[in-house]
Write a structure and sequence with these properties.
This protein is an all-alpha fold. It has two domains: about 220 residues, no CATH class; about 120 residues, no CATH class. About 60% of the residues lie in helices and about 0% in strands. Helix 1 packs antiparallel against helix 12, helix 2 runs antiparallel to helix 4 and helix 7 packs parallel to helix 10. Bound molecules: 2-acetamido-2-deoxy-beta-D-glucopyranose (NAG) (3 copies). One 2-acetamido-2-deoxy-beta-D-glucopyranose binds next to loops. One of its GO terms (molecular function) is ferric-chelate reductase activity. It holds the Pfam family Ferric_reduct. It is a multi-pass membrane protein.
């Protein structure tokens, strides 16, 4: 059991790495959180149909109760307890709950199987309000109450994880759109009749001058490359500032978190996510700007030389993000591995650490 829970925690630590890959099914996340939290608060106890020949597969298939979706989907004590928990915690429309119920209530530890009864049917099975609160060593054989502490911690953990994920996906997308959007906008605005004269007036002051004396025409000493014009420097500054701001803002944490033991570990994980996401967002820009057949060359009036120059600077931001990502990942995994080993040695984690997936 101790080993199983250790494996589960390790699995949950690695889960965000797969979540990093952007949108797809992940963007749906754990919504509705009340239902997912109920499911997880009830999901690790044995059912009468547990161990019906099911051997847990890979990490994501781990299920501490070894109950298959088919087992869960036909097990009324599990479904009625789940339905009761949802009815006392959720305020969503019935349609949202039933959709989630049909798709997610039986878990993911094997081939997908929709439950035999709908949410409302399962709820009808509860004739008297349950009074027994499920504990870690109980077998789930009748309608029970979920542990409120477990529910709350599941809810807080999943909500924060999704919040952070949506946030950095949004910021990553903005980063990508701004990187490609600035040349497009700068070019197209120039074609507007009332903007054109203004740009012509400003060009000698903003766009053309070098940022460092006359170094635009000759390379900087010590392999510094070519100095940027003011226009190019503005682009680089915009990208750098945007990246720094998006790295710095809007962090929120939830403790006691079931994935990340301690606020500093949780924050570190979120920084790792963000650096990973932003570097992925900048990668297409790095490649596009360096390409000989850069589509932007057709769509904008910026020169190939400018794009090559900007390519180098965006690549520098990219590399910096990757380095922070790698170093922090290493620190993070060493730190959490040490914590996990220490706790395992001191008698494991207790039921709060057993996540069912
Ligand atoms: C609840 O479900 C069980 C198992 O299917 C069934 O035997 C029982 O009659 C149901 N009770 C009610 C009140 O529907
Ligand atoms: C729960 O079920 C398991 C597996 O069927 C069994 O070994 C165990 O003794 C049961 N525990 C309780 C408290 O009934
Ligand atoms: C619920 O779980 C928490 C944390 O695992 C535990 O401390 C508490 O005693 C449990 N409550 C009940 C009513 O079992």
């Amino acid at each position: 059991m101790k080993l199983a829970s250790t494996v589960l925690v390790v699995a949950s630590v690695f889960a965000p790495a797969t979540a990093l890959q952007g949108f797809g099914a992940q963007s749906i996340g754990y919504f509705p959180y009340c239902a997912t939290a109920c499911n997880r608060a009830l999901g690790s106890n044995f059912l009468s149909c547990s161990f019906d020949g099911y051997i847990p597969g890979g990490m994501m298939d781990s299920d501490s109760a070894s109950a298959t979706p088919a087992c869960r989907g036909s097990n009324m004590p599990f479904l009625s307890s789940l339905a009761y928990c949802i009815s006392t915690h959720c305020n969503h429309d019935m349609g949202i709950i039933e959709t989630w119920w049909a798709a997610k209530s039986t878990g993911s530890g094997g081939a997908f199987e929709p439950p035999k009864w709908s949410y409302q049917e399962a709820l009808m099975n509860v004739t008297a309000a349950p009074t027994h609160v499920l504990t870690a060593k109980d077998n789930l054989t009748s309608t029970v109450l979920s542990n409120e502490t477990s529910y709350r911690n599941q809810y807080g953990t999943l909500f924060m994880v999704d919040r952070e994920e949506f946030l950095h996906e949004k910021y990553g997308l903005v980063l990508l759109m701004v990187a490609v959007g600035i040349p497009l906008l700068a070019t197209w605005l120039g074609y507007l009749p009332f903007v054109n004269p203004l740009i012509h007036k400003l060009k000698p002051y903003i766009i053309w001058p070098s940022t460092i004396g006359s170094y635009q025409v000759r390379p900087l000493p010590y392999l510094g490359g070519t100095a940027l014009t003011r226009g190019q420097a503005l682009y680089v500054a915009a990208m750098a500032i945007l990246t720094v701001v998006f790295m710095a803002v809007h962090y929120e944490t939830y403790q006691p978190n079931l994935w990340y033991p301690g606020q500093s570990v949780e924050l570190m994980a979120y920084v790792v996510w963000r650096t990973g996401c932003y570097s992925l967002a900048l990668l297409p820009v790095v490649l596009l700007f360096a390409a000989r057949n850069n589509t932007l060359l057709w769509l904008t009036n910026w020169s190939h030389g400018t794009y090559i120059l900007l390519h180098r600077w965006v690549a520098r931001i990219f590399v910096l993000l990757v380095i922070i990502h790698s170093v922090l990942s290493l620190v993070y995994y060493v730190k959490t591995a040490t914590m996990i080993l220490a706790w395992a040695r001191h008698g494991g984690f207790g039921d709060a650490w057993e996540l069912s997936l």
